[in-house]
């Protein structure tokens, strides 16, 4: 299968965008529309989308009948094999806590650049404040502000890069990390059960030291949302990513059409490439992007969940009948392979095909 290729963006535009971000400028003038669509495309941002909602409480609670549980599992399987993602609710995390993590994220980004630059990273680093690593000449850059922090295993934390302001940032992120560990456990088990597999099989593949990294994204209001994207079309190289948003802007591609992920204060969106590999292609990993908004800013927290460093993962035995049926092979550190393609605006899933 050919790699998914996103239309290249002019090198000059990429450079210009980065310079403008640094100087807090807004885009004006005849730039190429980065989504390749007509001006005014953002009008569909408010359209309601049928991105499936899965109630995880219905899968875990003893008060739910077997029939209802089966129905929810079927819904989950169908969501992941058609949309490749779902909005998860019922994880048992309070709305007020989710508001807290959105709040500290926004407060961090609203600070003056000098304050944020205390946590600045170089263009070669992953962790810290600032744009993605930029080794590729002409790599297309996103119109967003970012903070990227490894949060689990704990020895990967670089606390010197964790913001000291707002004052509660560290405590809230530590708490959020614990909650996300619980979310990955519930989600991985639910995914396995939806495929009639032993519930721990995916967790065992990821390993006990599976990694979590938080990417805080901030998209300021933009005078020309028709000209720039907050985040270019891409898929995630993670086992799966868990996205918390405070407003609309995120869109997923399905059957050639972009759908806006609705705003739901307690929902966590789940999607990622490695689940496609481990489910032997039954689940799909969707391409997604983020649009900018004329008047409102937006914050999201993407928690990247990846297998332990150096751990091989592959299609579950229960899903393949002999090697012929295998669509994907076993891979190791796929997220790194993915990253190299991502920087060139491409997908990496073809590298995992048999
Ligand atoms: O901002 C969002 O909602 C999406 C973020 C995302 O796709 C990413 O960080 O990979
Ligand atoms: Fe993403």
From TrEMBL:
<keyword id="KW-0560">Oxidoreductase</keyword>
<dbReference type="GO" id="GO:0046872">
    <property type="term" value="F:metal ion binding"/>
</dbReference>
<keyword id="KW-0847">Vitamin C</keyword>
<dbReference type="Pfam" id="PF14226">
    <property type="entry name" value="DIOX_N"/>
</dbReference>
<dbReference type="Pfam" id="PF03171">
    <property type="entry name" value="2OG-FeII_Oxy"/>
</dbReference>
<keyword id="KW-0479">Metal-binding</keyword>
<dbReference type="GO" id="GO:0016706">
    <property type="term" value="F:2-oxoglutarate-dependent dioxygenase activity"/>
</dbReference>
<dbReference type="GO" id="GO:0002238">
    <property type="term" value="P:response to molecule of fungal origin"/>
</dbReference>
<dbReference type="InterPro" id="IPR005123">
    <property type="entry name" value="Oxoglu/Fe-dep_dioxygenase_dom"/>
</dbReference>
<dbReference type="InterPro" id="IPR050295">
    <property type="entry name" value="Plant_2OG-oxidoreductases"/>
</dbReference>
<dbReference type="GO" id="GO:0009805">
    <property type="term" value="P:coumarin biosynthetic process"/>
</dbReference>
<keyword id="KW-0408">Iron</keyword>
<dbReference type="InterPro" id="IPR044861">
    <property type="entry name" value="IPNS-like_FE2OG_OXY"/>
</dbReference>
<protein>
    <recommendedName>
        <fullName>Fe2OG dioxygenase domain-containing protein</fullName>
    </recommendedName>
</protein>
<dbReference type="GO" id="GO:0031418">
    <property type="term" value="F:L-ascorbic acid binding"/>
</dbReference>
<feature type="domain" description="Fe2OG dioxygenase">
    <location>
        <begin position="209"/>
        <end position="307"/>
    </location>
</feature>
<dbReference type="InterPro" id="IPR027443">
    <property type="entry name" value="IPNS-like_sf"/>
</dbReference>
<comment type="similarity">
    <text>Belongs to the iron/ascorbate-dependent oxidoreductase family.</text>
</comment>
<dbReference type="InterPro" id="IPR026992">
    <property type="entry name" value="DIOX_N"/>
</dbReference>
């Amino acid at each position: 299968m050919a790699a998914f290729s996103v239309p290249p963006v002019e090198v000059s535009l990429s450079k210009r965008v980065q310079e403008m971000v640094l100087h807090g400028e807004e885009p004006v003038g005849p730039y190429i529309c980065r989504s390749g669509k007509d001006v005014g495309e953002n009008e569909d941002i408010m359209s309601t989308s049928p991105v499936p909602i899965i109630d995880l409480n219905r899968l875990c609670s003893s008060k739910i009948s077997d029939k209802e549980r089966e129905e929810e599992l079927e819904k989950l399987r169908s969501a992941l094999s058609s949309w490749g993602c779902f909005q998860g609710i019922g994880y048992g995390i309070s709305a007020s806590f989710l508001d807290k993590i959105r709040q500290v994220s926004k407060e961090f980004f609203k600070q003056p650049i000098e304050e944020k630059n205390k946590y600045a990273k170089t263009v070669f680093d992953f962790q810290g404040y600032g744009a993605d690593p930029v080794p590729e000449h002409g790599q297309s850059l996103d119109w967003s502000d970012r903070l990227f922090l490894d949060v689990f295993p704990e020895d990967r934390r670089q606390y010197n890069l964790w913001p000291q302001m707002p004052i509660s940032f560290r405590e809230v992120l530590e708490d959020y990390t614990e909650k996300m560990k619980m979310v990955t456990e519930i989600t991985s088990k639910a995914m396995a059960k939806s495929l009639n597999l032993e519930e721990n099989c995916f967790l065992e593949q990821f390993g006990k030291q599976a990694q979590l990294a938080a990417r805080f994204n901030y998209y300021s209001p933009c005078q020309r949302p028709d000209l720039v994207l907050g985040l270019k079309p891409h898929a995630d190289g993670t086992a799966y990513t868990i996205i918390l948003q405070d407003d609309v802007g995120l869109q997923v591609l399905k059957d050639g059409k972009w759908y806006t992920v609705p705003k739901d204060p307690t929902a966590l969106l789940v999607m990622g490439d490695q689940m496609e590999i481990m489910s032997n292609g039954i689940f799909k990993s969707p391409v997604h992007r983020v649009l900018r908004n004329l008047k409102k800013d937006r914050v999201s927290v993407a928690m990247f969940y990846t297998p332990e460093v150096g751990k091989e993962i592959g299609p579950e035995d229960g899903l393949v009948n002999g090697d012929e049926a295998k669509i994907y092979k076993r891979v190791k550190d796929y997220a790194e392979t993915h990253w190299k393609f991502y920087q060139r605006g491409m997908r990496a899933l073809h590298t995992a095909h048999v």
